[in-house]
Design a protein that fits this description.
The protein is mainly beta. It has one domain. The protein has one helix and seven strands, in the order E-H-E-E-E-E-E-E. Strands 1, 2, 3, 4, 5, 6 and 7 form a seven-stranded antiparallel beta sheet that branches. A hairpin with a 5-residue loop joins strand 3 (about 35-45) and strand 4 (about 50-60). It is globular, with a radius of gyration of 14 Å.
Length: about 130
């Protein structure tokens, strides 16, 4: 497991082969970190032999109705922003013209938190 960044750093890291698009949610866990609500999501990435874990700390709003890891949950589209002092992710975003590039009331499966940190799990290659 390798630490890959906080907030905007992790958002900027998840591009090209490491995109969340077409990833599958392997694990979704609500827990407490340093006395505050947190959510960790492990994604199995589609274009590489790596998994990424995002831990959202100081969760202000959890917009997931169910645990997405309970069934096959593939990320077909997503919004992932660092706005002011908050982090926002939606795995089922509003893709209308009005909601495309902003937080929308029609976004679903979302988290608003004070921060996020990311870790990557890459497959070991032996010699």
């Amino acid at each position: 497991m390798k630490f890959i960044g906080y907030n905007s750093d992790i958002i900027n890291y998840l591009v090209n082969d490491l995109t969340l698009l077409n990833a599958t949610v392997k694990n979704f866990k609500k827990h407490v970190v340093e006395g505050s609500p947190a959510i960790s999501i492990i994604f199995e990435l589609a274009y590489t032999e790596a998994d990424v874990m995002l831990t959202f700390k100081d969760v202000l709003k959890n917009g997931f109705d169910n645990n997405p890891a309970d069934e096959l949950y593939q990320v077909d589209s997503c919004k992932f922003y660092h706005i002011g002092n908050k982090v926002y992710i939606s795995l089922d975003p509003d893709e209308s013209e009005e909601g495309y590039d902003t937080i929308s009331a029609d976004d679903h499966d979302f988290i608003i938190s004070q921060s996020v940190e990311g870790y990557i799990f890459e497959e070991e290659h032996g010699d």
